[in-house]
Design goal:
Radius of gyration: 22 Å
Helix content: 40-55%
Shape: elongated
Number of domains: 2
Structural class: alpha+beta
Bound molecules: cobalamin, iron/sulfur cluster
Largest sheet: 4 strands, antiparallel
Order of helices and strands: HEHHHHEHEHEHEEEHHHEHHHHHHHH
C-alpha cells in the first residue's frame, strides 16, 4: 500500500529517483532569517523573482497552509568525465554537468507527476515542485535526510556526493519523518578555496552576484571585467565547488549525458544564430538562457583562450543586433590583438551609440 511513508519512499525509488525522504513540516522549517539576510545583502542580483513571495518561499506552510509533510526526492547526475581536465581545454566550451542532458525540470516533474497521481488516488491532496516554485529545496532535503547543505550551499550526500537534482512533493497527509542528516563538512573548505571568483564569502553562504553560475546563466547584461578572466572556458554554469568536494568519491556515474555537449569547439559555437542555438540545445536547460547571453559567454572564453584565428567571427559580432553581444565582441577583439585591429575598432566605433558598447571601446 502506497499510504505509509516507507511505501511512498519505496515507490519514489521504483520510479527512478536515486534517493527520497520525508519531512514532517513544523515551525522549525522556516528560513526567513537566512533568506531576508541574503536579499538584504543584494546577493540575488538581477534574480528579482527571489525577492518576490518571500513569505511563501521561506516556509513551505506559507506556500500551502494545508501541507503537513514533504516527500523530498533526489536524482543523481554525476558525470564519468573529469571536470578539471575539461576546464584545461581552452578551445572548447565548458558546459556545466547538470546541463548536458535532458532538462531536469522535465525529467523530475514527469516522475513526480506519476507519484502524485498515485498518491492522490488514495485520497490525499498533493502538490509537486521542481526548482521554479517559491520553495527552498536544499534545507528541506537536508531535513528529509538526503544529505546536508555543504559550505558551497548545495546539498551533499554520503551516497552521491554533490551531484544531485532535487524535487519535492507536498501533501496534507501526516507522515512520520525520515531521520534528518548531519553536517559532514568538518574542517574541509575546499569548495571555498577553489571558487574562481570568491563567491563563497563565508561557509554556507553564497554571494550569487559573484557566482559564475549566476553570471553565465541568469545575468543578461555586460559581465564586469573582474569576472571575465576567471570564467576561463566556462560558457554555461560552473561546477568547481561541486567537483572538488571529497564526498564525490562516493558518487555513482549516471546515464543520460549527451556526448555532443562535451568538448564543443568555441570557434563553432560563436557562429550559432538564434535558430541554430535553439536546435543544438533543444531539450536541455541551456536553451532557456538564450542565444545572446550564450554567445556573450563564448566571446569571453575565446578572449580567455587567446583564439586569435576566430577573429573574423568576432569581428562580425561587433555588428550584432544585441548590444551586450556587441560589447563583448569589441572587448574580445581588443584582447585578441589581431593585425589591423586598431583600424577595425576605429571604423566599428563610428555609428555606435550604446553606452555599454562605447564603454568597451574606451576601456
Ligand atoms: C536561486 C538558485 C540559484 C542561484 C543562487 C544559488 C544559491 N546558493 O542560492 C544561482 C544562479 C547562483 C544558482 C547556481 C547553482 N545552482 Co541553483 N538554484 C537556485 C534555486 C532556484 C533557489 C535557491 C535559493 O533559495 N537561494 C536563496 C538562498 C538564501 O538559499 P540558500 O543558499 O539555500 O541559503 C541557505 C544558506 O544561506 C544557509 N545558511 C546561512 N547561514 C548558514 C549557516 C549554517 C551553519 C548553515 C548550515 C546554513 C546556513 O541557510 C539558507 C537556508 O538553508 C534552487 C531551487 C530551489 N527552489 O530551491 C536551485 C538549486 C539550489 N540549484 C541547483 C544547482 C544544481 C545549481 C548549480 C550547481 C548549477 C551549475 N552547475 O551552474 C549552481 C551551484 C552554485 C552554488 N554554489 O550554489 C540545485 C542544487 C541541488 C543540490 N544538490 O543542492 C537546486 C536545488 C535546483 C534543483 N531543484 O535541483 N542557483
Ligand atoms: S559555482 Fe563556481 S563561481 Fe559559483 S560558487 Fe561554485 S565555484 Fe564559485
Ligand atoms: S568541499 Fe568540503 S566544505 Fe565544501 S561541501 Fe564538500 S565537504 Fe563541505
Amino acid at each position: 500500500m502506497l499510504g505509509g511513508p516507507e511505501e511512498l519512499i519505496q515507490r519514489a525509488l521504483e520510479l527512478g529517483f536515486d534517493d527520497a525522504g520525508i519531512v514532517k513540516l513544523g515551525p522549525q522549517h522556516d528560513w526567513s532569517r537566512q533568506l531576508d539576510e541574503f536579499l538584504a545583502l543584494g546577493r540575488h542580483g538581477s534574480m528579482d523573482w527571489l525577492a518576490r513571495r518571500t513569505n511563501e518561499r521561506s516556509n513551505p506552510r506559507n506556500l500551502w497552509p494545508e501541507a503537513r509533510s514533504a516527500l523530498m526526492v533526489a536524482a543523481n547526475y554525476a558525470s564519468s568525465h573529469d571536470v578539471f581536465e575539461e576546464l584545461s581545454h581552452e578551445d572548447e566550451g565548458y558546459l556545466s554537468v547538470y546541463a548536458r542532458r535532458k532538462d531536469y525540470h522535465d525529467v523530475l516533474k514527469k516522475k513526480l507527476r506519476q507519484l502524485a497521481r498515485e498518491y492522490a488516488d488514495l485520497g490525499h491532496q498533493v502538490k509537486l515542485f521542481v526548482d521554479t516554485a517559491p520553495l527552498m529545496e536544499k534545507p528541506l532535503a537536508m531535513a528529509a535526510g538526503l544529505g546536508w547543505q555543504g559550505k558551497h550551499t548545495n546539498l551533499v550526500s554520503q551516497n552521491f556526493g554533490s551531484w544531485l537534482f532535487l524535487g519535492a512533493l507536498l501533501t496534507d497527509a501526516e507522515l512520520s519523518p525520515s531521520p534528518s542528516e548531519q553536517d559532514h563538512c568538518g574542517s574541509c573548505q575546499a569548495c571555498m578555496d577553489i571558487c574562481p571568483t570568491k563567491a563563497i564569502p563565508a561557509a554556507y553562504q553564497l554571494d550569487a552576484v559573484r557566482c559564475l553560475a549566476y553570471l553565465s546563466i541568469e545575468y543578461k547584461g555586460v559581465i564586469a571585467p573582474e569576472f571575465r578572466a576567471p570564467m576561463g572556458n566556462r560558457i554555461y554554469g560552473c561546477d568547481d565547488c561541486l567537483a572538488i568536494c571529497p564526498w564525490n568519491k562516493f558518487a555513482v556515474i549516471s546515464h543520460g549525458e549527451r556526448a555532443q555537449l562535451r568538448g564543443a569547439k568555441l570557434r563553432q559555437l560563436v557562429r550559432l544564430n538564434d535558430q541554430e542555438f535553439r536546435s543544438f540545445f533543444a531539450g536541455t536547460p541551456i536553451k532557456r538562457t538564450g542565444r545572446d547571453a550564450f554567445v556573450r559567454n563564448v566571446l569571453i572564453a575565446i578572449a580567455n583562450g587567446g583564439l586569435q584565428d576566430a577573429w573574423p567571427d568576432v569581428y562580425a559580432l561587433c555588428r550584432d543586433d544585441n548590444p551586450v553581444v556587441r560589447a563583448h565582441a569589441v572587448a574580445c577583439l581588443k584582447i585578441l590583438d589581431v593585425p589591423r585591429g586598431q583600424d577595425m575598432l576605429q571604423s566599428l566605433r563610428v555609428g555606435e551609440s550604446d553606452a555599454r558598447v562605447l564603454g568597451e571601446f574606451d576601456r
